[in-house]
Automatic annotation (TrEMBL):
Core-binding (CB) domain residues: 8-97
Organism: Clostridium ljungdahlii (strain ATCC 55383 / DSM 13528 / PETC)
Biological function: Site-specific tyrosine recombinase, which acts by catalyzing the cutting and rejoining of the recombining DNA molecules.
Keyword DNA-binding: yes
Gene3D superfamilies attached to this UniProt entry: 1.10.150.130, Intergrase catalytic core
Gene encoding the protein: xerD_4
Name the UniProt record assigns to this protein: Phage related integrase
Record GO biological process: DNA integration; DNA recombination
Length: 336
């Protein structure tokens, strides 16, 4: 029988559990793998243990806390990155406990480490005028411009994550009334969001000039026919952002990033009196407490949605599950 040592659990965690059982996305798995590479580098750098003699003892609370402080101070990682590394190690510990309860003592040390509280940053977003002007930048007479317009319009219209639009297949779009897009989000969860007739026509125009018709093919590809990368999407957005900024610096005070279209869509939904529960589902958030960060960006929106959320709970709470009730109550506790 194979001895179940530290390397055994690490191997099984990455080759079997994360993908096949937990259903984590490739990006999450890569992030978790990077965490372990960094952790092993730290262990070796400070001679805590030789790399060929790794054991469960390296997961002591002191080692993990020192590792987290090291990546934050020495490697200049953000608090958010620090917390992501901790989350990866905690996930591994939960897996080990499930596989071998005898290892729970040392794993519980890691699970007891609290995430570091990060300073809440204001969310940058574009107003409606800025979105409209940005979508006028691509050249609608060229194949590349038609593709780029379709990409930007769909990023904003659906409020999707960059990886979601990279992974989007031709068969994920339905041109029946109502027009919809099926997005595969974190944890391989699929959500269906509506798109307007105008954006639907933009997508149809793009697909009409495409040589790809297989429903399983990616919609957005580069000149080599390969799916766009995250940096490719960022390049396209910044290209047109820079063009727009030359004429309207007032609308684009800073460099654009792909997530800004997602933020903008969320803020515009809030400004149009869409409740947080719907926006949560639209964006694919697991909890409304994640969605509420958008209400904090605007004092007037914050005041309005605190009032509306309060009325929503007292008047229609019976239509929602216990989890949803708790989410809304938690939102109120944080903001009132």
């Amino acid at each position: 029988m194979h001895k179940k040592d530290f390397s055994y659990y690490v191997t099984r965690y990455f080759t079997n559990y994360l993908d096949r059982e937990a259903g984590f996305s490739p990006n999450t798995i890569k992030s978790y793998r990077d965490t372990f590479i960094l952790f092993f580098r730290y262990i070796e750098l400070f001679r805590i243990c030789k790399i060929n003699k790794l054991n469960m003892d390296i997961l002591s609370a002191d080692n993990v806390n020192d590792f987290l402080n090291w990546i934050e101070k020495e490697r200049q990682c953000t608090v958010s990155s620090r917390n992501q590394r901790l989350a990866a190690l905690k996930s591994f510990c939960i897996y080990v406990i499930r596989e071998n309860p005898e290892k729970s003592d040392i794993c519980q040390q890691v699970l007891g480490i609290r995430a570091k509280k990060a300073t809440q940053k204001s969310i940058g977003y574009l107003n409606i005028e800025a979105i409209s002007y940005l979508l006028k930048m691509p050249d609608k007479t060229s194949d590349r411009g038609i593709r780029d317009l379709a990409l930007l319009a769909l990023l904003y219209e659906t409020g999707c994550r960059v990886q979601e639009i990279i992974d989007l297949k031709i068969g994920d779009i339905s041109f029946r009334i109502p027009n919809t897009v099926a997005l595969t989000g974190k944890g391989n969860k699929i959500r269906v969001v509506p798109i307007s007739q105008q954006v639907s026509e933009i997508i149809k125009n793009y697909l009409s000039i495409s040589t790809r018709h297989n429903f399983e093919e990616n919609i957005f590809v580069n000149r080599l026919g390969n799916p766009l990368s995250r940096s490719g999407v960022a390049y396209i957005l910044n290209k047109y952002g820079d063009m727009a900024r030359k004429n309207r610096l007032d609308l684009y005070p800073y460099k654009l990033h792909p997530h800004i279209l997602r933020h903008s869509k969320a803020m515009h939904l809030l400004e149009n009196n869409v409740n947080l529960i719907y926006i949560r589902d639209f964006l694919g958030h697991s909890s409304v407490t994640t969605t509420e960060i958008y209400a904090r960006c605007n004092p007037e929106l914050k005041r309005k949605y605190i009032e509306e959320a309060s009325n929503f709970i007292t008047e229609t709470v019976q239509d929602y599950s216990k989890t949803e009730k708790n989410d809304l109550l938690e939102w109120l506790r944080k903001n009132i």
